[in-house]
Amino acid sequence: MAQIILAVLVSFVLFASVLVFFIKHKQRMPYYQIDRVGCVQLLEQAVAGELLERDWHVFIGMSVRYDVEIETLRYTCIEVDDKHVINTVMKSGQSYVVFSKKGLAILQDLLEDWRHRVDYLA
């Protein structure tokens, strides 16, 4: 009888430790959530020619469900990406997005609008 209780106890401890291990080391989805200040920073980098291609594609590639205005900005940036991205340029081993003059003008207008939203409408 003692052997059965010991076997059940060892099995339970083994099961619990395996369960805790998998819960603790479970793969999680990457978390990306941009706020209005982050949008201004992204637009500033784009206008200055310092926007990493990776950051640009992450922003335009992930839908924003928590803020309608940021989602509208994202759609506008998708249009800029479709029509006004000329190329990418490599600097220091990183790829930066290059926009046409019209694309830069659109991004500059967006930047001014979003700076106003962040600074005065917060």
What can you see in these coordinates?
Helix 2 packs antiparallel against helix 5 and helix 4 runs antiparallel to helix 5 (about 100-120). The protein has a two-stranded antiparallel sheet. The protein has five helices and two strands, in the order ααααββα. With about 120 residues, it is mostly helical. The mean pLDDT is about 90. The radius of gyration is 24 Å and the shape is elongated. The protein has a domain at about 35-120.
Mean pLDDT across every amino acid position: 90
Number of helices: 5
Strand order across the largest sheet: 1-2
The helix content, as a percent range, equals 55-70%
Write the layout of secondary structure elements.
Blueprint: H1 2-24, H2 36-48, H3 53-61, H4 68-84, E1 85-91, E2 94-99, H5 101-120
Antiparallel strand pairs: 1-2
Quick gist of this model?
This protein has helices at residues 2-24, 36-48, 53-61, 68-84, 101-120, and strands spanning 85-91, 94-99.
Characteristics of this structure?
mainly alpha, 122 residues, two-stranded antiparallel ribbon, 11% strand
